[in-house]
Each structure stands twice: as C-alpha cells, then as structure tokens.
Amino acid sequence: MNRRVFMKSGAMALATMGLNPTFLRRTVFAQDLLKGAALNGNARGKVLIVLFQRGAADALNVVVPHGEKAYYQMRPAIAIPRPVAGAAQTAIDLDGFFGLHPALSPFKKLWDDGILATVHAVGSPSNTRSHFDAQDYMESGTPDNKGTRDGWLNRYLAVKGTCDECKLHDGTSAEKSPFRAVSMTPQTPRILEGGAPSVAMNSVDEFTIRTNGTQADRIEALYRTGNADVVHAAGGEMFEAMKMLKAANPQQYIPQNSADYPRSPFGQHLRQIAQLIKSDVGLEIAFADVGGWDTHVNQGGATGQLANRLDDFAKSIGALVQDLGDRMSDVTVLTMSEFGRTAHQNGNGGTDHGHATSMFVIGGDVKGKKVYGKWPGLEPEQLNEGRDLALTTDFRSVFSEVAFKHLGAAKMDAVFPGFNSDQSKWLGVL
Amino acid sequence: MRTHYVVAWLLGAAACGAQSTKPTSAALAPMASSASSAQSQELLPDEQVQQALNRLTFGARPGDAEKVRSMGVEKWIDLQLHPERIDDPKADQLLAQYSVFNMKTSDIVRDYNMVQQLQRQVKRTDAKDSTMNKVETRQELIAQNPQLAEAARKAQQLTGEVQSAKLARAVTSDRQLNEVMADFWENHFSVFAGKGQTRLFLAQYDHDVIRPNALGKFRDLLGAVAKSPAMLFFLDNWQSAADSTQPTLAVRGGGRDGRAGLRPGVIARRPGRGAIGGFGGGQQLPPAVRERLQNATPEERQEIMQRLQQQAKRGLNENYARELMELHTLGVDGGYTQKDVQEVARALTGWTFNRQTGEFFFNPAIHDAGEKTILGHKFPAGHGEEEGEQVLDLLARAPATAHFITTKLARHFVSDEPPKALVDRCANTFSKTDGDIRETVKCVVTSPEFFSRSAYRAKVKTPFELVASALRAVNAQPDTTPRTAQIVARLGQPIFGRQTPDGWPDRGDAWMNTGAILNRINFGLSLAAGQVPSAQMQNWTQYTSLSTQPREQQVDGVVKSMLGGQVSPETRQVLMSGENPMLSKPAANDVNGMAVIDDSASTMMGGRADRQKGKTEPGKGFPRGRGAQIPGFGRPVNLQGLPQVVGLALGAPEFQRR
Fold first, then answer.
1. What is the C-alpha separation between A125 and B395, in angstroms, rounded?
2. How large is the ipTM?
3. Distance CA B6, CA B212 (A)
4. Staple A357 to which of A271, A340, B229, B344, CB 3.0 to 4.6 Å?
5. Which residues in chain A touch residue B515, judged by CB atoms under 8 angstroms apart?
C-alpha cells in the first residue's frame, strides 16, 4: 500500500479522536501514538530543513530591537522605524521590544500561529570576521577548529540512526533512503561533507538519465549484472532512487494550500524540498543556501537591498510552510548566517562584518511566538569589541537542541565534539 | 520495492556469476590458468599494458597500448619516471595560450589591486550618486581606461584558467606520469581557490611549486610549498606572529627590522575597543598602515583591522603547523602532540610573503625567538628563518612521514587498501633515498603488488580522472575555455575547489554514491552526443572507419579503445543489443516490481522539458538557480549507432574504474 495513503489515514485517525495532530506532537501521548503507528509500519520521519544565508545577514535589521534607543542612534540612515500599527515600512512588532523587518511580513502569521521562534544574539564564539572561516565553523560545528573534516549534519547522519521506527512504503528503513539527506546545491555543502551519503542536486528534474527510455534501460542493465562491488552497488541504488522519484512524480507537482513560491532560485529550491517531503522518499535532512547578505554599501532600511533579500527569503519560507500544511508538525526549518554585522552603520550606508547574529526556528515542534536568548543590549559598553552585537548563545546550543529534540539524535558528543551539549545550555526553543 | 530488488540481485548473481573482468576475447583466454602462478605473472602481458596505462596516465589515448607494448612495459614506465626525457611540444604550446601562466605573480597582484580600487571607486560613486547604477559606473570607468579593462578581464578569469589548464594538460601532455604526480601533490598539498586571495597564487603554485618537484626530493617539495604564497595564505601562516608574551627577533636584535612589520607589543597595549572608531585616529599605527586604512574599502578595512586585532590578541596561528604535521608529513597518527603543533607554529612565525609581489620573505619582527622543543628536539632561543628549515628537515625525514607518504602513493597507484608489505618496502626506499619521490614511485609501480590480479582495475576514477580519461579515449583536443573543467566540478570535484586542506579522498567508496553515478552516466551520454567542448566524435581516430561497420565490430572497437579490451559478458551484451538478460524479460519486471522507464521519462528531464514546462505552466517552471553557472549536461540526447555504443561504454561500470 502507498505510504502516503497511510499518512492520510494516520492523520485522520488522530483527527477522529478529536485531537489536533500538531498539538498532539508536543504531548507525551503523541509519542506513544506514533510508536503505535510505527509498529504498523507507517510512521513518518522528522525532517530538518537547514537554510544558510551566506554573506552574514544584518541581524539587527532582521529582528529589530526597536525598544533600544542606541539602535536608532547608531543607524540614523538604515534603522527600521519603530512599529506603527497599520503603517507599512515600519517594524512589525513582536513583543513590544523586538520587531520583524517589514519585508518579513509572511513570518508574522507564523509567529501568531505559534510555530515561529527567533533566537537573537546567537552565533559562533570564534571572533573571526572572515566569511570563509565563519561559514566553515558553522558548518563543521566546531568553531576555531579547522581540523574538522566533516560537517555536523553529516556526523548526525552517521551516528544516529534517527529514524528507527521509520519505514518507507516498501518496508525498508528510511535511513537507507538515497534521499535521506538532500542538498539543493550544485555540490555537497561543507555541512554535509563526510562519510554518510547525501545527494546534492540543482533541481529534482535534473535527477534523471538524460536520454530516452530505451537507452536509460540499457544503462541500467549495465549496472544490474549481479556484481556487488561499489560501482555496481551505487549504480543499482541510483536507479532505485530515480524510480522512487519517478513514482512520486514530482514533475507534476502542484503546491497545496495556494502556496506561491517566488521564482527565485531560493524559492524554487524550497519548493523542491517540499516536493521531496511530500513524495515520501525518506527525506530527513534538507539543505539550501541563499547569498546576497554582505551589505557593506547601501543596504537600505525598510526598503532597498536588504529588504529585497528578506522579501525573497520570507516569501519562500512562507510558501514552504503553507504548502506543507499539516506536515509542518514533522518539519523544523532552521535558518542561519555566519555572523552578524556592525551595530553602527558605516560611511557607505551599509554595515561591516560583526559578531552575533539571529536565527529563525519554524515548525510544529517549535515553542513559537518568542524571541529566545539573553539580550546583551546595544549601549557602547555592551557591544562586542565596541562595535557589534555581543554573543550570548553559542550556535551549538540551538543546533544540538534541534538535533536532539526534533530528530532524536544520539551521541551528541560525536555530533558536536568539544561542546558539552547538556540540556541546561538549551534555550527550550523546542 | 527494495526487498524485491535484493531478490532479483541474488538471482542475478547466481545467473551471471560475480566476475566483472572475465575476459571475453579468445586472445585473453589463458588468464584463468595463470592466476595461480607468481604475482609478477598474475597479469597477462596485455593486462600489464592496461594496468600501466590506467595508473601512470589519465587513461589511454588511441594507439597508446600499442606504443607501450612495442616499447615494453618496463621500459615505458622508466621513461615516464623521467619526464625530462620526453619532448612535450603539445603541452608547451597549450600553456602559451593561458595568459595567467605567462604573467608574473606581481603583475597578477597588481591587476587585482587595480580592479579592487575600481570597485572602491564604484562603491563610492554609487554611495553618493544614486542616479547612476553600479554597472554603468563600472563600465564608464573601464571605458576610460583600457588597461583597467584588460586587468578586470584577467582578474575574473584567473581560477578558470588554472582549472582549464590543469585538465587540458592532463588530457594532452605526453609526460603523463608527471601530470598524475602533479595532480597527486596538488591534492596532498591541497589549497582552496575560493579562500580570499589564494587564487592569485594558483598558477605560480602549479607551475613553480608543485611541478618542478613532483618527482624530485620530498624535502624540496615540502620547502617550496611551505614558502608558497598559496599555502601561506590558505593556511594563514602569513599572518602568524609571535605571541605578545614572547620575545621577537627584532626586539632581541634591537629592532633591525627594515620591513613594514607591525610590532605586536605596540598594538597589544591598545585594547580592541571600537575597532574602526577606536583605531580610527591611528596615531600609534605605522604611517603605511594608516594610509592603507584611509584608502581601503569597508571590506579591506575590516580585513586590516581584523589582522591588527589578531596580532594584538593572539598572534600565533597554528593552522599551518597542524596541517603540516597531520596532512603533509607525519600523518594524523604520526606521534606528535598539541604541544608540538604550538611549538612548530612558533618556529614558523615570520614565514610570510610580500603582499605586492607574492614573494616569500622572513619577517624577524614577528618571529618568536624563544626556545622551543619539537618532537623531543631542542631548538635554542635566538634563531630565525633557519629554525623553520630545521623543522621541515626533521619532519621530512621522520619515519612516520616515509610511511604516511608511501601509503598515500600506494593507495593512489595500487589499491584503496594497499598491501602492508608493499608500503613497508617502499617506505624503506623513501627513507634510504632521503625522500626521493621518483625512487619511491618506481618501487610502487614496478612491484608485484602493482601487477597483481587484485590490483587490476581496483581503483575507482575520481571525477577529474573520469573526465580526463574520457577525453583521452576519444582523442579530444584540449579545451582552453573553462567549460570542460566545469564539468569536473559538476561531477563533484571542482579543481582547486576542495574547501578543507585534506584534499579529495582517494578511495572508491567516497566517489560512488547515488548522485555521483547519475552525473557520470549523463556525462558519458553528453560526450557521445558531441555536447562536450573539444570532444567531437570525429576526432576519434577510429570513428570514421567504425561508423560504417556492423554493430559487432563497433562494439569490439569501442571495447578495445575505451574499456581496455575487456568487459564483462553482461556489459558486452548490453552494448550489442541493449537488452538486459534479466530486465528484458517481462516476468523479471514483475518480480522486481519495477516499471521499465518508458519514453515519457523524457518529460522528466531538464533543458528542453524545463522550457516546455515554462510554456504550459507559466510561473511554475524550474529556473536553473545558482547551479546555472555550472553547466549541466546539455539537452537530453537520443543516440544512435556508434555514438550510442560510445555513450553506453562511457557510462558502463568498467569505465568508472582504472
């Protein structure tokens, strides 16, 4: 029987019990119910979508501390105006102190629905201001240690058989799925480098043999000879994977709930991640990145360069959440950027490389509608090196909490070596 | 679905046997009887030729096997071990076509700085005058200055040229072992083009650092790398300075430093408050630095300030010292400690390069002149550049280094898990010859283990090797554009694109996974369809004669020139008929539970299908995204006749191995 049918009936079963599945996920009951479902071979796995804003997004104009006087003093030309109800081009108030950049308006609904949280003053304890090094550290999960060869998502894949209960529709374990980890990038990103397999692709429709059916068959025949060596095995798996995709028919995909993805590369990558999730091909980790955040010059305020980037960012994620609908109860979206930017605007209407940054965590498991993390303040003596938002939360606190609570990761010492992932460091975002 | 597949696989294994390299041609029939004889005779003469070509070259070009056979394998290997005895006019001519290899590093740096200055100007203009956009400003500035235009063009093409040249030489050069060794060492001493200014020094790294030493003494190679701006920049040693608690040579010697080195002691007294604001006055900064700060873009200002702060706070950078021992010499289990890493880093402080010329120089002002103990050896206080040289001597001659380097060579030339006896023997050669690379390689590639049955076709090609070998197989002309090199990137191994300093893996399992194999097959199809620049089927020597022959002769010809004359019976059958013994039977399909891909599969494809989609469903198509810069594999192809045999052969499992 098709796994998707199972899913629907599973959700219906919960609904008929008079409970909202999203709510249930957070209760003890939910775990038992899912385990019960797993025994029947129809549990669906958790999915983590990691989105990297490459270039260092200006956290202070993303999640705006409109309650800080110093914020407006340091940024006369680029500050986001304090919230004014009903007025566009002002911050969207969250809690009376923080607000969202107006271009992030799609996030307001997610905030109100309680599935979006933000973490502020978070980032890498390393004081590097190099994009290369900082991205490297955030992806390897080991700040200031350049000796780490693999990425933390790969180590997670390697140590955790996360989805002990997860089964694909053919009864095999989801961990064995060739699509367990997919990166919507031309090459495997640093964060997924390592021993555990992952697939990097520009687009789902590229994942096919570029010839007609007869010749594709012939090539398949070349690999289906009964040989068990590494080349034949990889070939055999690849043809399995291709058929899985074809059966799921993502090319005919129509987003649900009138989700409207931007035509931008980022929007289309998220659309394809949604396709893969809904195709039930065993996706557990998805990765995509988006550039354009290195706003040294003319970054703009409520409108302009940064606003345009944020518009695409929020519309794409908003469409993904809308498209996934109930499925968001199994999905967590985690956004990150290598560091923040200077608290002062510079002489070119932009900002330079800073320190702490902000993240969004979105999903059914998220204890949303809250800005997490200790706010260090923006007065001169509160700034890092007198110039940047200071850091109060190590990014590994957030990553490890998400990996543990959402994915059920084991062996946290192996995923974040040298970091004591004890629960007291967690913020309780999930 | 998977369970069924496993069943089918077992059936297949029973039906077909597990031999993939079973020779099919009558000439190779005696193989089975020779398998029990001495190791050196495990491979038949023709197989020895193939083995030598597969490992000492980037794949045979048409006619190569005949050449090796007539010269004799042993003699041919010896010749390849002495590239200086091989004329290589084609490769020389090729190199002349790349401007980056005909420029001095100082000119490359000058051009780069000129372009940076242009960007600065554009940014300033842009910040003041919003009526003019960046592109217009840039174009206008360039139009006013043709020299600048040329510099901008060149600066943009630096990495692409180096990548293209590396692949083109691998395809073209007659000094094939030298090319293989250059690739080996560039991977062993891996640098990443995408980190900062590393790319400015790549051509010099390839041409002056790696190649002249590729078959020389390991110590010379190690020293050349240690002093190369590419490595100094990539692993940060250029900015590693004595900790403020340590005496520097300049301080000890009464400030005899004539260079513009910053004295950490001066900076250290200033706490890093408000970097740009705080340092902005810059009264205590040397005038040269002050001037640079004033003329810098925000990004450069950032970099300068970062450097100053780093020197103030924590001068020592251990990055290179660590990789020097872990990756370049002793190996991760080579018996050094974290303390040794720190001490080596201290010894190498002051090893830096001139930012204008790219030339190495030793800066005594930032050299840690204190006493050090490295791997149990005392290094007395008060020494300078020669101290670093002594450290390199010590590391190059350590037994762990001999073992580590020889293991990597044996893994590259023989098998993923090289026999211990071979490694021990050749490591001994390495030590006895004072790290002579030529002698060590000779030990490996003339060994019985090299010509053993278990080593035959045991290596999986890396993407670079796959592309180079395919181009060589069809007698392709070198492509001096970056396009073919971009295919290597698309297959997962961008040239000089390994971010981490460990280099690309040299083991088959690292390269064989779902996505990889698909891209490889598509590359083969696209090459056979004439979509790969410079690789036109017509250039292939046998193309014209074979194209009019019956299918059987075509298959024989393709197997001979592209698959080393040997394929499994299954592969041969597929090449002949396209029919799979298992899958072609409808019953087998039912058992597998797999539908055979029909022609509707073409609607799944990119390219044309994308555009069609765009028409029927406006706004819902798939733009190519970031990957658009790295070309895919062209339009879906429908191959017939000889190109079809070639496309299938290049996509076959046998072609993935060497």
1. 33
2. 0.72
3. 51
4. A340
5. 199-201, 207, 238
